[in-house]
User: Fold these one by one.
Assistant:
Number 1:
Amino acid sequence: MQLHQREAIEAAVSLDTAALAAIELGFAALGRGEVVQPPILSMAIEEANGEVDVKTAHIRGFERFAIKVSPGFFDNPKQGLPSLNGLMMVFSARTGVVDAVLFDEGYLTAVRTALAGALSARYLARENSRRVAVLGAGEQAELQIEALRLVRDIDTVDVWARRREAAEAYAERLRQRGLTVNVHDDVHAACRAADIIVTATPSTAPILEAADLPEGVHVTAMGSDSPDKRELADSVMTRADAFVCDTRAQSECNGELKAFVKAGETRAEVPFKVYELGEVIDKRLPLRLSEASITVCDLTGTGVQDTAIANYALQRLTT
């Protein structure tokens, strides 16, 4: 059994086109129905303001499958510790024997999440998109921009965050990478000229309204990943010409579609068609019918991404 620490994993895996292709391959397999992906196992540890999620998937034909354990303890920064942590256990898909444990401390999750955002833009955003509005100023807000630059020629970023000082620090980091960055005091101003909007916050109430959407924009919403989080107002989803999610079941439970799930029911009744990202990728569905089309993609994070990035990481670590 192989043991790999975060330092080695970071040296082997980065936000690049090869990693993007690995995640794209996983989503395409999901779209073809070639993935076994059970529901997320989630456990709250309320007294410590913590939660633990377990995700997994088997991709038919892949040599290995991964089981990821992802703790989030949100008071940790007060103790000088990171909020997010975790590891991936990787098993042989032929024998069930443990091949490796990746002590990535959440690094691979951050990478695969950013790459899913890039894929949503590749298939849904206008090809000439250059300006991105980012709501949020944390790690994923930064990684989403880095990943987007793999698929679009991004040159300008508009940022809004609840804490102005966090937005200013974020802006400075991106300026050092050659980007033009503007900090805004309200969401509407940040989104006014956007080609792409990325929401990357832990918000528990909608922060983006239909009135904030310029013509032709693509929205990637990736902050709502548990039952108590929301970033998009209902009006954003009903206004969209195409609504896509990584999986409908997860979006209805943890993502933005839960806004349409009635009490006592398990499936959302929505006044629009719902597409899944894997289907869009595999079938190359042309959902952007004009330059004025508005598209939305809701990403909750899937086990197929974890198995795809774990297989890719082990290939890089052992060659």
Number 2:
Amino acid sequence: MSYEKVKQAANIIIGAKQASRMVDSNKVSEVFVAKDADPRVTIKLVNLCHRRGVAITYVDSMKQLGTACGIEVGAAVAAVVNE
């Protein structure tokens, strides 16, 4: 299950802006995007990932992604930072 990758990651970034900065710096191995997130929040990051060749995994909901990240609220985007 893709949520397990988020839970087991040593270093994750939560949020589209922070994730975009890290993708731009080639410091991200994989990005997780919630299917129910507002596309206006995620579209720039998704396009950036496609251009940079970063893997994108879509997960069912923001609530589940937030829980996997260890936060109390939903998360539209999370990124696994390279070791």
